[in-house]
């Protein structure tokens, strides 16, 4: 029934639950979760040609060019020959997607379609105690006394990244950056979107879809026993 390994990309805005869902995919299907940031660090640490080239730009505070990033990613992906994988955080632009597609056949791009208002409410409800790092959420884990840490009674703060204006700007930037990318993969017949307001709603849909593509971990174990 399953004749090949799966090469997949996962996309979703900040706060969409992409990390949570990726973790569940790894657990249930045994896929390798590949973060572009982690791959970049590995290549630099191993002093590969592409890693050293990327480091020059990073040390100057500049963005790593598309061709260098593509080579970095390909260096790692080509080493994975016996596992299905899930690429996260790359590509970020259409030129990167085109360059990647020229070298590798991507099977599916899974897009987590979470309403921006839901994400905004989720992220802006987060407050922290700066001294300990304790995190509170006004919706599901509020402090006993509004604005105060439960343990010390000290003031809670809202990180700059969690302030409404910052969250709105990040989501707008994400939309502007990824809209052409989603259109590119949609035109290629690779895009599958999963809509919902939380991971527990979205993941069952993702799981049902992946179960038509690759065996689950339990199924793989059963095959080995047989």
Q: What's the end-to-end separation, in Å?
A: 16 Å
Class derived from helix and strand content: alpha/beta
- Compute the CA-based radius of gyration: 20 Å
User: How many DSSP-defined strands?
Assistant: 7
What global shape is seen?
Answer: globular
Low-confidence parts lasting 5 or more residues at pLDDT below 50? 221-226
Described by strand count, sense and barrel closure, the largest sheet is: 5 strands, parallel
How are the strands of the largest sheet arranged? Answer: 2-3-1-4-7
Strand content: 5-15%
In round numbers, the mean pLDDT is 90
Q: Helical region count?
A: 9
Helix content: 40-55%
Features:
single chain; 226 residues; alpha/beta; five-stranded parallel sheet; 9 helices; globular
In short:
With 226 residues, the protein is of the alpha/beta class. It is built from nine helices and seven strands; from the N terminus they run βαβαααβαβαββαβαα.
């Amino acid at each position: 029934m399953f004749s090949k390994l799966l090469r997949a990309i996962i996309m979703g805005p900040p706060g969409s639950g992409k990390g949570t869902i990726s973790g569940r995919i790894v657990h249930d299907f045994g896929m390798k979760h590949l973060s572009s940031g982690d791959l970049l660090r590995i290549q630099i640490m191993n002093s590969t040609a592409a890693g050293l080239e990327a480091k020059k730009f990073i040390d100057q505070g500049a963005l790593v060019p598309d061709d260098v990033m593509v080579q970095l990613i390909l260096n790692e992906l080509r080493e994975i020959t016996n596992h299905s994988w899930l690429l996260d955080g790359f590509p970020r632009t259409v030129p990167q997607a085109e360059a990647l597609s020229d070298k590798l056949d991507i099977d599916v791009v899974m897009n987590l379609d979470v309403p921006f208002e839901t994400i905004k409410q989720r992220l802006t409800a987060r407050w922290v105690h700066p001294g300990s790092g304790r995190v509170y959420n006004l919706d599901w884990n509020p402090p006993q006394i509004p604005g105060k840490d439960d343990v010390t009674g000290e003031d809670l703060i809202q990180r700059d990244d969690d302030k409404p204006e910052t969250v709105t700007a990040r989501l707008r930037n994400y939309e502007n950056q990824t809209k052409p990318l989603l259109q590119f993969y949609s035109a290629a017949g690779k895009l599958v979107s999963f809509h919902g307001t939380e991971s527990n709603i979205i993941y069952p849909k993702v799981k049902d879809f992946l179960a038509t593509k690759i065996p689950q971990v339990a199924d793989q174990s059963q095959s080995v026993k047989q």
